[in-house]
Amino acid sequence: MDDHIAIEELKAEIPAVLVEIEQEISPLLSLGQVANYIPELSNVDSNNFGMAVRFIDGATFETGNSRTNFSIQSISKVFSLTLAFAILKENLWFRVGKEPSGNPFNSLIQLENEDGKPRNPFINAGAIVIADIISSHFEDPLNTTIDFIREIAINKELSINMGVLQSEKNYGHRNAALAHFMKSYNNIHSDVEDVLDLYFGHCSIEMNCFDLATAFLYLANHGIHPLTGKAYLNASQAKRLNSLLLTCGTYDAAGEFAYKVGMPGKSGVGGGIAAIIPGVLSVAVWSPGLDNYGNSLAGAKALELFTTKTGISIF
Ligand SMILES: NC(=O)CC[C@H](N)C(=O)O
Description:
This protein has helices at 3-25, 39-42, 76-88, 109-113, 124-137, 141-153, 162-170, 173-184, 192-203, 209-215, 235-248, 254-261, 297-310, and strands at 33-34, 50-55, 60-64, 70-71, 159-160, 205-207, 265-267, 272-277, 281-286, 289-290.
């Protein structure tokens, strides 16, 4: 079938699919556990659910609380990796691996066995190394990172939630331990404090589903943002980043997520998940209740229903 016709038929289906998804996930909203390591996250109402789909031509479909801001947390690791990948290119992989960890995102154990080189850029240790690379490269790394995210989200208003940032710092002992441990292996070059400020800073940015779907469009379009024409990665780098999202984007549940959803995606403990289908669309979903792996329980189900009902996935 002609690609264009297939895409137009897909678009026509989506409003009804979103209605069905919202109905079907509703009993799941109470089953997840909202992140409770900082008060700002534990106070978020678990009944929230939002979803936004954006096609690379800009067509948009949304449902629920798709314009309510939430803490993007680890989804920000995709944006920081994009910046670091553009700086170091393939040399990046001397500092951080590209294998699934099979361990929780904040695990310390593997790091010791592997001499301070994190398994991949999406576990906390890996994202802290990425923050170090950005810290060493830019004069004002946090503002550079935020400006980059504002640019790809096409939203100048995006900002950090200062309450979340302060709590991340107050309760960030495990991340500090990871950073210091890697410093002992000389895999952190800047001051640990500066690196953690950047890491906590980008985790504390707030976005909504519409913003996130917009921001992921460059990954759905071979590295070029289709709505601005700006290139952030070349096609090979975009392929590689998407491969990492598929194998590592949802931590030790990445196999299950790939099996059920069939899209490269990234989750965060704020309950967001953003995913893409190359050449077609990006989709972001938000529901704060998490499963045992720290991924949005209803959010992952919504994405599974999305690919199942529409029949579209990367496979
Ligand atoms: N998985 C996540 O979203 C973790 C991010 C969180 N800020 C942390 O460092 O623990």
